[in-house]
Amino acid sequence: MMKPREVRLREFLSNSNLANPKSPPWVHSTPSSKLIKIIQDETLLAMRCDVFKGEKLCYLFAWQLPSVFVMRFATPPPIKRIYPFDTGAFDRNRMPSYLTAFDMQNFDLGSDDALIGRLISLYFVSAPFYAPMQLSAGMG
Q1: Distance between CA atoms of 95 and 93, rounded to whole angstroms?
Q2: What are the E-state strand segments in the chain?
Q3: Average pLDDT taken over every residue of the chain
Q4: In the β-sheet with 47-48, what is the strand arrangement from edge to edge?
Q5: By the 8 A CB rule, do 90 and 101 touch?
Q6: Regarding beta strands 67-71 and 26-30, do their DSSP bridges make them parallel or antiparallel, or are they unpaired?
Q7: pLDDT digits (tens, 9 = 90+) for 23-80
Q8: 3-class SS of residue 34
Q9: How confident is the model at residue 140 (pLDDT cuts 50, 70, 90)?
Q10: Is residue 126 within 8 Å of 19, Cβ to Cβ?
Q11: Which residues pair with 83 in a beta bridge?
Q12: What angle do CA 108, 110, 116 make, to 5 degrees?
């Protein structure tokens, strides 16, 4: 008889035979009040993170904010970690209890952006649109 063991999402997706579709674009959402400065500076800044303490990150997905930048890169910046949800909402128990009952680290996809496509393939037979992921790009 096999003993059950914990399998993290990253391990499940890495070992799956799910399709690996083209990488979705990166999305950065921000309050409209910051739009003019971002356009003038041509820069998205990494800010101190209150979930991953001691790190400066530029989040490339946020929830219900009015200005959105959609980006594709010839050479993308380095990814620090990928989560399939808003980690701030998870940390503050704003997610359903069936998710927050687990350790948030179980959902960490690491920095392998190929797992984004596999996660999308897990839910959609064909991807008419891409589900939002939260990317944390490390800047220091």
Answers
A1: 5
A2: 26-30, 47-48, 56-59, 67-71, 81-83, 134-138
A3: 79
A4: 47-48, 56-59, 134-138, 81-83
A5: no
A6: antiparallel
A7: 677 777 777 788 788 889 888 888 888 888 888 888 776 555 556 777 778 888 888 8
A8: helix
A9: very low
A10: no
A11: 134
A12: 85
Q: Is the CB of residue 138 less than 8 Å from the CB of residue 54?
A: no
Structure tokens at 21: 């579709």
Q: What is the CA radius of gyration of the chain?
A: 16
Helices and strands (H, E) in the chain, number of each type: 5, 6
Tell me if 103 sits within 8 A of 78, measured CB to CB: no
The label of the residue with tokens 């649109």 reads 129
Contact by Cβ (8 Å): 112, 14: yes
Output the pTM of the full model.
0.64
Q: Is the pLDDT of residue 100 over 90?
A: yes
**Closest C-alpha among 53, 60, 37 to residue 111:** 60
Tokens of 8: 């993290």
Length of the chain measured in residues: 140
